[in-house]
């Protein structure tokens, strides 16, 4: 059973805006899923629906097998949410803020657990500081501590590193990796492709309220490992010559360019053999250049394809 099950989720806001269009997604226990999407894609709406903050227009969501509407309390108890906005009480001490969050979930006071959470987030020596005395990065950590205070099994992080400096971003990634080691299921939204590359097990791309792709990061990385050699021809071709059929070739630019896809991880790319074969087949070459696919290309390509179709 998936830890989070989202089926045909639709959200139409008052005023008629359709922020989610039939989203279905399964999130497995213990995985880190990064949801990548531009501004306004529907990421926060999706998270809010799972956390029971936004009421879906249609569809069904289960967390740990509990329906988020019919069985709200059981589902909500399993979920921790780190919101995008910093919404902390400035004069409250760090430790009280975190204790209070635990209490809101009806959990008995457990100072040993709160200490463990604060230590994990390097907040223990700040436990008696008022929130307003903390740096922005530390405040974000307090948001995570609050979200973890009631021992959730699933943690949603809504753009955890927006506006955070590079060093702190790396710290945050390490924290997320540690939570995963503790068995917490993590869903984070981000604009940063490098963030998805750094920590996710799976990457989902969302745009205009639709999931365009969900794929293991490792298979995306394999695709990213694909490079293209583009061979500009002296004379255009109408078809790839039979003599070159052993190569993975396609024609582009109206037959003016031969595109050869090869794997950067392979021992031999086949480029030298291709060049020999081209000359053997009497195909004259004007220029060659290479192009690397990145996660960014895949992302931009998917999003722009959808924009074109709209
Ligand atoms: N309460 C609301 N009423 C009407 N429209 C809303 C409401 N909340 C969000 N929207 C719209 O729904 C769309 C999706 O918003 P959402 O906040 O889910 O996107 P997002 O992917 O989280 O974006 P960002 O990366 O900018 O946070 C946006 O066009 C937004 O303007």
TrEMBL record:
Entry GO MF terms: ATP binding
Alphabetized, the UniProt keywords read: ATP-binding, Nucleotide-binding, Transport
* Repeat recorded as keyword: no
Q: Domain named ABC transporter: which ranges? A: 4-233
Task: Show the InterPro entries listed in the entry.
Answer: AAA+_ATPase, ABC_transporter-like_ATP-bd, ABC_transporter-like_CS, ABC_transporter_ATP-binding
Q: Which PROSITE patterns match?
A: ABC_TRANSPORTER_1 (PS00211), ABC_TRANSPORTER_2 (PS50893)
Q: Give a yes or no for keyword Chloroplast in this entry.
A: no
Q: List the protein's name.
A: ABC transporter ATP-binding protein
Q: Which organism is it from?
A: Thalassococcus arenae
């Amino acid at each position: 059973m998936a830890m989070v099950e989202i089926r045909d989720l639709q959200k139409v806001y008052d005023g008629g805006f359709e922020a989610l269009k039939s989203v279905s997604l399964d999130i497995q226990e213990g995985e880190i899923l990064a949801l990548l999407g531009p501004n306004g894609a529907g990421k926060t709406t999706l998270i809010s629906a799972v956390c029971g903050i936004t009421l879906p227009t249609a569809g069904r969501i289960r967390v740990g097998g509990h329906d988020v509407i019919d069985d709200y309390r059981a589902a909500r108890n399993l979920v921790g949410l780190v919101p995008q906005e910093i919404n902390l009480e400035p004069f409250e001490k760090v430790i009280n803020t975190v204790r209070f969050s635990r209490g809101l979930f009806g959990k008995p006071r457990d100072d040993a657990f709160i200490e463990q959470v604060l230590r994990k987030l390097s907040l223990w020596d700040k436990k008696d500081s008022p929130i307003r005395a903390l740096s922005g990065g530390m405040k974000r950590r307090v948001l995570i501590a609050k979200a973890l205070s009631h021992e959730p099994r699933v943690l949603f992080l809504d753009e955890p590193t927006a506006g955070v400096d590079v060093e702190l971003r790396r710290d945050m990634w390490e924290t997320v990796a540690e939570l995963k080691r503790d068995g917490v299921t993590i869903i984070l939204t981000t604009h940063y492709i490098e963030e998805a590359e750094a920590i996710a097990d799976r990457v989902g791309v969302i745009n205009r309220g639709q999931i365009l792709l969900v794929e293991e990061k490792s298979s995306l990385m394999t695709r990213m490992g694909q490079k293209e050699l583009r061979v500009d021809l002296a004379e255009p071709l109408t078809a790839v010559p039979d003599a070159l059929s052993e190569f993975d070739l396609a024609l582009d630019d109206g037959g003016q360019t031969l595109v050869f896809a090869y794997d950067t991880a392979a021992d031999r790319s086949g480029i030298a053999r291709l060049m020999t074969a081209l000359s053997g087949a009497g195909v004259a070459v004007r220029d060659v250049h290479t192009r690397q696919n990145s996660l960014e290309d895949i992302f931009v390509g998917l999003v722009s394809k959808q924009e074109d179709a709209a």
